[in-house]
Design goal:
The complex is a heterodimer of chains A (277) and B (631). By secondary structure, chain A is α+β, with helices and mostly antiparallel strands. In chain A, 56% of the residues lie in helices and 12% in strands. In chain A, helix 6 crosses helix 11. Chain A is elongated, with a radius of gyration of 33 Å. The two termini of chain A are 47 Å apart. Classes of the chains: A alpha+beta (277), B alpha+beta (631). Chains A and B meet through helix 1, helix 2, helix 3, helix 5 and helix 9 of A and helix 1, helix 2 and helix 8 of B.
Chain lengths: 277, 631
């Protein structure tokens, strides 16, 4: 039984798929019967080393002589049945083989993009297309005082206090203890959002600098906030975010390559669709 | 061989392809980044150490088609399309992720699914193949049968071809490794190399997640190992020690779902019986510094059978206390003690008293164990355990029995949990080191910030100053050990801050475990600080319930009860310097709607009364241990 599963495994091999695909194309090009290669099975050093390595990976010890003989026997069986199956044309008109080949064709289409190293110009273009996506978030230097849970009376008190506050004065409303930093020094907005919640971060973007404002609501309650400095980091340079750009480039390129490949192949076909009425 | 490859390539007219296949990608963009570690951990990092993609035998069988790359993009906050076609995006990205696909049969169901049908001669495998091709439901039935056969040691021989498996594993592992390297961004987002070692004795869960501290240069020298039919974890420990010795790298293992081990995860004896040896205990404690205490398949903190005086014990045990993982062995109450983490911490003290080494001196984290490649632990965003229960109207009540009809349903799954790590930087090294020193805690989903320091001279006044610095200077953080106090009882700084977009806090508790004079393990839960203390006076030593603002009909709650933050300095009133003990913190949220309640609103469902529609989510810290000075 195992020879068949071994053959199944071989049919899943990229190498085998190259061979099958190559053979098929050869048929298309030459119009001749499929040439499934020489009728000689060579188990060379490279094959044996491969078998041994796989065994070691699985069992963390080399195979015994008997076991190695078994592996080689199995390999030969697989080769024989694989080649005979091809010779008999068992691969033709099999939906699953078709599907596998289609997947392999897709993989081949995508593989080039997968392995290609994008040029700097391509990465720069990606960066230029959506600079906001790659921009470092603004950084804030600020002081905050936590007043307590958000209630109408506390809100009113905070507003009253702020309106009577002279420039340079510090607020006198009692501060409530909370395990959050009272001062932030150049903290990225995204970190502030993580610590205080998105609403608080959004409010900071509109806050004036150099004086106490508020009350600003966070997930914890009300705060008075004094934004001391807001720094917008310079636009990111390619060199600093190359890997991120490459990841995005590659994931888009693989998808595009598959599409392009299909479209190119489609040009060689007349597609006639006759839907039943 | 090589010649033939070239021939095929030429025929295909893509000669660049062959070179491309073997190219190792870490040469690309291989810029080394220096990330400075802080003096002490300033910011808690959130992550998931337990996530499966289409490369996991069962995840694929359950239907997922998303790759590790999709998983990493999702964790980093990118929008991805789930297997069932739903758009998914985390409202708040994670700081780190470990993709832990099952080593056993890595890529195997995918390979079976992709194999030519005519070449599958084993009738069982052919049936599974056909079922998987029927669609998601057939796929899930096939998976249930495969798991069941695995539990009975009855998988078809053809599926156990070690050579095939090793080949597959190697190629999947190599490709994952490249992806993980590409998405690891030191300082911003950490992607770890890892896998799950799915040790399972007759359906009893002894699983471990294996996580490497190193990059592909070292991790690439090994491949995940298959635990099929191993009875004890020794094999993975051998593997880990061999890896460390050969590469100078570091690796740790995280046991999970002790709740489904039918008493085997935290045994008092050596596995298989006989007294535990000090060598075994030492090895286990070193290699497994952290345990996953909460996840989708239930919560393993405490069980009401073991902790009858703890009214909050038994969170997320419904459905999971019926049997072992595969549902092929019913559970009996005598098994609970080997399954729950609090009890394991107590057993650790007992064993330490006997042989001088504590095998169970571990920290705790939460993680999802999601099999959708989507790391979701928030109730209102829960994407389910596996593709079959991505959001859909049926998932709450669907049986989840792996074909055994043993009474597990969709709603028994928890939208839980995440791992919180007090690391000095967002890097592999810093996060790994924090896990090794157990400065970590678990959340059932909400991102509460929890600090816990133990020392000998903390006073209430400490909370007014820079108490974090004081905590590190004059005490030890969670995961640490105290000994040799000369000033009476130890005192603890306990501080909890609610999730900024979540529910208020009900209370903070300290759970103490110790071994009494008669050699018996004891436990006690202390309410140490709670909301509205003016109104909520303890009755018979217990603080009354916080109340409930949940409106099930709309799946909403109000933060009109509870407190945004709770902090105190607590001294153990019952301290005995001669008695070894541990202390850990449990932070309770006010009640909130559970994911079935959100589903009920979303899909206009009528739920039966037994379905959990609200709950009190929580965080558990790693313990601080007190070791008496030998007299």
């Amino acid at each position: 039984m195992t020879w068949r599963t071994r053959a199944a495994a071989l049919l899943r091999e990229p190498l085998v798929h190259f061979l099958v695909a190559g053979a098929l194309i050869f048929v298309v090009l030459s119009g001749r019967a499929p040439d499934t290669g020489e009728r000689r099975i060579v188990v060379d050093e490279a094959v044996v080393t491969g078998l041994v390595n796989n065994y070691v990976q699985a069992f963390r010890r080399p195979p015994s002589d008997d076991e190695l003989d078994g592996l080689i026997r199995d390999y030969v069986r697989g080769e024989v049945y694989y080649r005979e199956a091809l010779r008999l044309g068992l691969d033709r008109d099999d939906d699953v083989v078709k599907k596998r080949l289609r997947n392999k064709m897709l993989a081949i289409a995508g593989a080039e993009a997968e392995a290609t190293r994008p040029s700097d110009a391509e990465l720069q273009a990606l960066l230029d297309k959506d600079p906001a996506r790659y921009a470092e978030p603004p950084r804030y230097t600020l002081e905050q005082r936590y007043l307590g849970s958000d209630t109408p009376s506390l809100r009113a008190a905070a507003i009253a206090q702020l309106s009577s506050l002279k420039p340079g004065d510090a607020p006198t409303l009692p501060e409530q203890p909370i395990p959050l930093p009272g001062t932030l020094d150049g903290a990225p907005l995204i970190d502030i959002a993580t610590q205080f919640g998105d609403d608080f971060a959004l409010a900071l973007e509109k806050a004036p600098t150099g004086r106490w404002t508020g009350p600003v609501a966070s997930g914890f309650g009300l705060h008075l906030v004094k934004v001391i400095r807001r720094d917008n980091p310079p636009p990111p340079k390619l060199a600093d975010i190359r890997q991120r750009l490459e990841n995005d480039w590659r994931s888009a390129a693989v998808r595009k390559a598959e599409e392009d490949n299909l479209n190119a192949l489609l040009k060689g076909y007349d597609v006639v669709i006759e839907k039943p009425r | 061989m090589r010649r033939k490859v070239m021939l095929a390539a030429l025929l295909l007219g893509t000669s660049g392809l062959i070179a491309g296949c073997d190219q190792v990608k870490n040469a690309v963009g291989g810029k080394t980044v220096e990330v400075k570690e802080a003096d002490y951990p300033e910011k808690v990092l959130w992550g998931d150490t337990h996530l499966h993609t289409a490369n996991s035998v069962d995840a694929f069988g359950f239907g997922v088609r998303l790759s590790p790359e999709d998983a990493l993009r999702f964790a980093r906050g990118e929008e991805v399309t789930s297997t069932t076609g739903l758009k998914a995006k985390l409202p708040r990205p994670l700081d780190f992720l470990v993709v832990t696909d099952h080593a056993e049969g890595l890529g195997a169901t995918k390979a079976l699914y992709d194999a030519p049908r005519m070449l599958i001669t084993d009738p069982t495998m052919r049936r599974w193949y056909d079922m998987m091709h029927e669609g998601p439901q057939g796929s899930q039935r096939a998976m249930a049968e495969i798991l069941d056969a695995r539990g009975r040691n009855d998988l078809p021989k053809a599926m156990l071809n070690a050579g095939d498996a090793a080949e597959r594993t190697k190629s999947v592992w190599k490709s994952n490794m490249e992806t993980v390297e590409d998405y690891n961004e030191p300082g911003k987002f950490t992607a770890f190399h890892g896998f799950e070692y799915t040790l399972m004795q007759g359906g009893n869960n002894l699983h471990r997640n294996v996580i490497f501290r190193d990059g592909a240069d070292k991790v690439g020298t090994v491949a995940p190992i298959d635990p099929t039919y191993k009875a004890t974890p020794d094999e993975i420990w051998n593997y880990m020690e061999a890896y460390e010795k050969a590469t100078g790298g570091r690796v740790l293992a995280i046991p999970h779902n002790s709740n489904l081990s039918n008493g085997l995860m935290f045994e008092l004896t050596q596995p298989g019986g006989g007294p535990m040896t000090a060598a075994y205990a030492k090895r286990r404690a070193k290699l497994e510094p952290v345990v996953e205490i909460t996840q989708i398949k239930g919560d393993s903190e405490a069980h009401p059978f073991l902790s009858p005086n703890d009214e909050f014990a038994g969170f997320g045990v419904a459905g999971w206390e019926l049997s072992n993982l595969l549902g092929n062995q019913p559970k009996t109450p005598n098994m609970f003690a080997g399954e729950y983490v609090r009890e394991a911490l107590k057993r650790g003290l007992l064993l330490e008293a006997q042989m001088g080494v504590n095998p169970y001196k571990f920290g705790v984290i939460g993680s999802t164990d999601s099999h959708t490649a989507l790391s979701t632990a928030d109730e209102d965003q829960f994407f389910g355990k596996h593709t079959g229960n991505e959001p859909n109207p049926n998932r709450v009540m669907q049986p989840q029995n792996l074909g055994t009809r043993k009474g597990r349903f969709g709603w028994h799954y928890l939208a839980s949990g995440y791992a919180a790590v007090w690391a000095k930087a967002n890097t592999r090294a810093a996060i790994f080191d924090a896990m090794e020193r157990r400065e970590v805690y678990a959340s059932t989903g909400p991102r509460m910030t929890v600090r816990f320091f133990g020392g000998w001279d903390f006073k209430a006044d400490d909370l007014k100053g820079n108490w974090v610095q004081a905590g590190y200077k004059r005490g030890v953080p969670m995961g640490g050990e105290l000994s040799g106090g000369k000033n009476g009882a130890p005192s603890f700084i306990v501080s909890a801050l609610k999730d900024p977009i979540g529910a208020n806090l009900d209370r903070v508790q300290v759970v103490k475990g110790w071994v009494d004079k008669s050699g018996k393990a004891q436990e006690k839960v202390f309410d140490v600080v709670w909301s509205d203390p003016g109104k909520r006076k303890p009755v018979g030593g217990k603080v009354p319930a916080v109340g409930d603002t949940v409106d099930v009909a709309t799946a909403t709650y109000k933060n009109t009860i509870g407190a945004p933050t709770l902090a105190t300095v607590w001294t153990d009133p019952e301290f005995d310097p001669a008695v070894r003990a541990f202390y850990y913190v449990r932070v309770m949220e006010i009640p909130t709607p559970s994911w079935p309640a959100y589903d009920a609103v979303r899909f206009k469902l009528k739920l039966t009364p037994d379905v959990r529609v609200k709950q009190q989510e929580r965080a558990y810290t790693s313990a601080i241990w007190y070791n008496p000075t030998k007299s």
